[in-house]
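Q: How do we represent a protein-ligand complex in a form that can be generated token by token?
A: Start from the inputs.
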Amino acid sequence: MSLANRILKVGASVTLAITAKAKKMRKDGIDVVSFGAGEPDFDTPKNIKDAANKAIGEGFTKYTPAGGIPELKEAICQKFKKDNKLEYNPSQIVVSCGAKHSIYNAIQVLCQKGDEVIIPSPYWVSYPEMVKLAEATPVTVNTKRENGFRMTKDELKKAITKKTKLLILNSPSNPTGAVYDKNELFVISELAVDKRIYVLSDEIYEKILYDGTNHASIASFNKKIYDLTLVANGVSKTYSMTGWRIGYLAGPQEVIAAINNLQSHSTSNPVSISQKAALEAILGSQDFISNMVGEFTKRRDYMIQRLSGIKGFSPFKPIGAFYVFCEISKTGLGSVELANRLLDEAKVAVVPGAGFGWDNYIRLSFATGMETIEKGMNRLEEWTKQ
Ligand SMILES: *Cc1c(COP(=O)(O)O)cnc(C)c1O
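Then emit the structure tokens for the protein with pyridoxal-5'-phosphate bound:
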């Protein structure tokens, strides 16, 4: 077999390896507590499912324009205006098969061999691999826990070279739950404008925030940064719609047109039925979100409190998303070994930090019921005592 170099450079996901092992154990009848979930545990709201059923009933089951139906693009424009004070017209929007697909497309049309892409670390597992798939070079920038895992201006400055094409930002962050404030983003935006670097801002967790934290979009400061920014977002996390596969991207018309072109030759349109469901999600009642975030808040507080009491563990308190990034240096084990041992011996599944670039951390999701969290925390506590 001779595969293309492009794909050979892309690593297999450590995240998936652990998840697969946990699944197999479950199948074998072992009671595994999983903190691996990368998706909300709530059902998709009824009004959204009804909209999808209606679409099926009405026969809305055929090809749509490759970049999404006009009314969904309109609704997305309204959302950007209302939530982010960002003015876009529908020709600046492309709807894709999940935000992951949106991000992949953006990197494909912007980056090529010789380009460098700056990625603050810890990072979402897929960013560096997507950059490699575009034959560009990922340049990771280690952030510091004492800075709340937020990249500083100086850290960014040091990473910029003549080859820098793109900066990927993810606020709120997966895996740390860090959220940049407006001033920090403004400083970054000035640097990006000065050096003419594009910014891909992954805002998929924008509505999942705690402690009264506000979300800011880097595109919103002025025309200069707006013209360099691509905002990625979607309905997966906000409306518990991970399986529906609808994400979207907003940005300069030229870039969006190129993505439309790419999409028209690859996936074609995102699922027609899901587009109608996303339309309802964006335009319909938003009450679901505050209920979900209220639940997440209780779970986060409980998990932080319990993890803080476990020997060798040092959790970082997230102010966004639904993960706890927890330092494990004092256990003396690397993240992959610890995750494997926790799974084998304590029957608890966690995600090794190595996948996010930090081998002395693990990630625990609290997108799972309170009872499960309690049971899992008891097991972790017992295990560390032995
Ligand atoms: C979940 C996630 C996405 C992608 O979500 P989709 O399901 O593809 O819409 C993108 N970025 C981050 C950081 C995520 O955690």
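Residues 5-44+287-385 form a domain with the Aspartate Aminotransferase, domain 1 fold (CATH 3.90.1150.10). Residues 219 and 226 are 4 Å apart (CA to CA).
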